[in-house]
UniProtKB/TrEMBL annotation:
<feature type="transmembrane region" description="Helical">
    <location>
        <begin position="177"/>
        <end position="196"/>
    </location>
</feature>
<protein>
    <submittedName>
        <fullName>Manganese transporter</fullName>
    </submittedName>
</protein>
<keyword id="KW-0813">Transport</keyword>
<dbReference type="InterPro" id="IPR037294">
    <property type="entry name" value="ABC_BtuC-like"/>
</dbReference>
<feature type="transmembrane region" description="Helical">
    <location>
        <begin position="43"/>
        <end position="62"/>
    </location>
</feature>
<feature type="transmembrane region" description="Helical">
    <location>
        <begin position="202"/>
        <end position="218"/>
    </location>
</feature>
<keyword id="KW-0812">Transmembrane</keyword>
<feature type="transmembrane region" description="Helical">
    <location>
        <begin position="68"/>
        <end position="89"/>
    </location>
</feature>
<feature type="transmembrane region" description="Helical">
    <location>
        <begin position="20"/>
        <end position="38"/>
    </location>
</feature>
<feature type="transmembrane region" description="Helical">
    <location>
        <begin position="96"/>
        <end position="116"/>
    </location>
</feature>
<dbReference type="InterPro" id="IPR001626">
    <property type="entry name" value="ABC_TroCD"/>
</dbReference>
<keyword id="KW-1133">Transmembrane helix</keyword>
<feature type="transmembrane region" description="Helical">
    <location>
        <begin position="255"/>
        <end position="279"/>
    </location>
</feature>
<feature type="transmembrane region" description="Helical">
    <location>
        <begin position="136"/>
        <end position="156"/>
    </location>
</feature>
<comment type="similarity">
    <text>Belongs to the ABC-3 integral membrane protein family.</text>
</comment>
<feature type="transmembrane region" description="Helical">
    <location>
        <begin position="223"/>
        <end position="243"/>
    </location>
</feature>
<keyword id="KW-0472">Membrane</keyword>
Length: 315
């Protein structure tokens, strides 16, 4: 019974491609999402999902489906750079900069898409994606983005961790904090671009925030939080696709695959919310943290994450 529910749907080629795509997206968004949650950048992720919308529309109008990712990439990079520059200026707060970017870019996208005859259908596709229609080229694009982002996260893990917990110390040590912020913002933008065709510009924020938030409820250890976020992202994608297939094919209840994936992630969050205090208490009774593992609740102000002083970085 369990095998039929979890494995049989993916014997079909289009379901197998969708599964590979959501597994890649789950791992990619889970890793980056940890920094989104720790830095409290969920609103930034939300703004970027809206900011890529005009790029998606322009790319679609110019080159059809093949132009969606390049168009989204251009506007994602533009939005990340503009936000980083605006937020670095003391006279403009981050919330104001985000609000300006979100409304202006998304408004431009709506104006562009409203000029088309199939306005409603196209808008729905752009906003919510079609994960069951992904092809091998899109999977390759997502895999390339995942590898590139993973390498950057690994190379700058100590610097990004230091910036997350102690900005003043990072500046005093000579790190270019604005450049580190730009790198993180660009990685968030790349996740949104990678997810735009599969789950759309709106639902991609769930991939970034929900798995990491659920993992954060279960542990204070950074490595554990990261591993759980990646696991939740991948498992939510798998279960969401399986549930939507089972409901639609065997029970006659049509469920949007991308939205069902998001709901599966939310279920993980609710479960973590319920058992989180017990799990964290058990973790804290365990052995002392290893030297290379940061406890995200017990880093005092003015102190560095363990190991943050070593390694090359952005200076």
């Amino acid at each position: 019974m369990l095998s039929r529910l979890l494995l049989d749907p993916f014997a079909l080629p289009f379901m197998r491609r969708a599964l590979i795509e959501v597994l890649l997206l789950g791992a990619l968004a889970g890793g980056v999402g940890v920094f989104v949650v720790l830095r409290r950048l969920a609103f930034l992720a939300d703004a970027l999902t809206h900011a890529v919308f005009p790029g998606v529309v322009i790319g679609y109008l110019v080159s059809g489906q093949s132009g969606i990712v390049p168009g989204a990439l251009v506007f994602a990079v533009l939005a990340a750079v503009l936000f980083t520059v605006a937020a670095a200026r003391a006279r403009v707060g981050q919330d104001a900069a985000l609000a300006i970017l979100l409304t202006s870019f998304f408004g431009l996208g709506v104006v562009l898409v409203s000029r088309q005859r199939s306005y409603t259908a196209d808008l729905t596709t752009f906003l919510f994606g079609r994960v069951l229609t992904v092809d091998s080229a899109q999977i390759t694009q997502t895999a390339v983005v995942a590898v590139a982002v993973g390498l950057v996260l690994y190379a700058l893990r100590k610097e990004l961790l230091l910036r997350t917990f102690d900005q003043q110390t990072a500046q005093a040590m000579g790190y270019r904090v604005v450049l580190l912020d730009l790198v993180l913002n660009l990685m968030i933008a790349l996740v949104v671009v990678a997810a735009v065709k599969a789950v759309g510009t709106i639902l991609s924020i769930a991939l970034l925030v929900v798995p990491a938030a659920a993992a954060r409820l279960l542990s204070d250890r950074l490595l554990v939080v990261t591993g759980l976020a990646v696991l939740f992202g991948m498992l939510g994608g798998w279960l969401g696709l399986a549930a939507s297939y089972e409901a639609s094919i065997n029970h006659g209840v049509r469920l949007a695959s991308g939205a069902t994936v998001v709901l599966a992630l939310v279920v993980f969050y609710l479960l973590a919310l319920g058992v989180g205090p017990l799990v964290r208490r058990r973790w804290r009774r365990g052995a002392r943290l290893p030297e290379d593992v940061a406890d995200v609740d017990e880093l005092p102000a003015g102190r560095l994450a363990p190991g943050a002083r070593t390694g090359g970085g952005v200076r």
